[in-house]
Amino acid sequence: MYEVLLLGAGKIGVIITELLASSGDYRVTVADMDQANLNRLPQYSNVKPLVLDVTNKADLMAALDGKFAALSACPFDITKYVAEAAAEAKVHYLDLTE
């Protein structure tokens, strides 16, 4: 199984969580700064919610540790934090910003 960090548990994040988790190929850590968003995630044994402020570099780097990829479903103004951290952590990175 691939370990991925999905950043953002809004509408798009929930759909991505469902797709990845139901495939059986991924362990998904879903991070959001709002616990209410995390509470709406689909319940799978391979989904782990994480309250995280991605602007806190140390916390973001810890969340990226050991991950295969980071997928960002965050607002566009968060991109620089996630992209820089993913590059530093040497993980694959995909941003879904419009």
Spell out the blueprint of helices and strands.
Blueprint lengths: L1 E6 L3 H13 L2 E7 L2 H5 L7 E5 L5 H8 L4 E4 L6 H11 L2 E4 L3
Parallel strand pairs: 1-2, 1-4, 2-3, 4-5
Helix pairs in contact: 3-4
Can you give a write-up of this model?
α2 (35-39) links the parallel β2 (26-32) and β3. The model has no long low-confidence stretch (mean pLDDT 96). This protein has helices at 11-23, 35-39, 57-64, 79-89; strands spanning 2-7, 26-32, 47-51, 69-72, 92-95. Strands 3-2-1-4-5 form a five-stranded parallel beta sheet, with helices on both faces. It has one domain: Rossmann fold, CATH 3.40.50. It is globular, with a radius of gyration of 12 Å. The protein has 98 residues and is an alpha/beta fold. Helices cover 38% and strands 27% of the residues. It is built from four helices and five strands, in the order βαβαβαβαβ.
In the sheet with the most strands, the strands line up as: 3-2-1-4-5
Q: CATH superfamily name? A: NAD(P)-binding Rossmann-like Domain
Distance between the ends = 29 Å
Query: What CATH first level would be assigned?
Result: Alpha Beta
By DSSP (H or I, 4+ residues per run), the number of helices equals 4
Total strands: 5
Instruction: Work out the count of structural domains.
Output: 1
Q: Helicity level, as a percent range?
A: 25-40%
> What fraction of the residues are assigned to beta strands by DSSP?
25-35%
Contiguous runs where pLDDT drops below 50 for at least 5 residues: none
List SSEs in N-to-C order.
EHEHEHEHE
The major beta sheet can be summarized as: 5 strands, parallel
- Can you give the mean pLDDT? 96
Q: Classify the fold: give the CATH topology.
A: Rossmann fold
Shape: globular
* Helix/sheet category: alpha/beta
Q: Quaternary status of these chains? A: single chain
Rg from Cα: 12 Å
Secondary-structure arrangement, i.e. CATH architecture: 3-Layer(aba) Sandwich
